[in-house]
Amino acid sequence: MSMQSISILTLSIVASGAITKHRFVTPGNTQAGAGVNTLGVAREDATLNAGLAIDVVGTAIVEAGGAIAAGAAVETDATGRAVTKTTGVTVGRALQAAAAAGDFIEVLLIQN
Questions:
Q1: SS (H, E, C) the chain
Q2: Nearest 5°: phi and psi at 46?
Q3: Is the whole-model pTM more than 0.85?
Q4: Is 22 left (phi over 0), alpha (psi -120 to 50) or beta?
Q5: CA distance 72 to 62
Q6: Pairing mode, if any, of strands 92-94 and 104-109?
Q7: Is 58 left (phi over 0), alpha (psi -120 to 50) or beta?
Q8: What is the pLDDT of residues 27-84, one digit of tens each?
Q9: Distance CA 106, CA 67 (A)
Q10: pLDDT tens-digit map of 64-77
Q11: Cα(73)–Cα(84) distance, integer angstroms
């Protein structure tokens, strides 16, 4: 998969817990759980109280939690990865398809 992204706004935060690179982050500065509101996507791994950059507006590279069709709306799974939206909050739109969990895809971030 392509590993390009276009960040229009990147914010620096202090992690309120462990955060994995390329996963969604909540407004509380924690790694997102299933179907929740998000602030952006982590650009790097972080531990509790560590600073990190998150992409908030634009596109970001996100780890998929399963197969996702290009163009599908996405929400977060229990570990902050992107999955096809079912009942949670829409946090992005897949610009590329993911064949399986662990793939990295470009997602257009949607504020929520």
A1: CCCCCCEEEEEEEECCCCECCCCEECCCCCECCCCCCCCEEECCCECCCCEEEEEEEEEEEEEECCCECCCCEEEECCCCCEEECCCCCCCEEECCCECCCCCEEEEEECCC
A2: -150, 150
A3: yes
A4: left
A5: 14
A6: antiparallel
A7: left
A8: 999 999 999 999 999 999 999 999 999 999 999 999 999 999 999 999 999 999 999 9
A9: 14
A10: 999 999 999 999 99
A11: 6
Euclidean distance between CA atoms 112 and 65, whole angstroms: 20
For residues 38 and 92, what is the distance between their CA atoms, to the nearest angstrom? 10
With 0-12 CB in 10 A as exposed, 13-18 as middle and 19+ as buried, what is 111? exposed
What was the pLDDT predicted at 46? 98
Q: What does the block give as tokens for 11?
A: 């914010």
Which residue type sits at 95? L
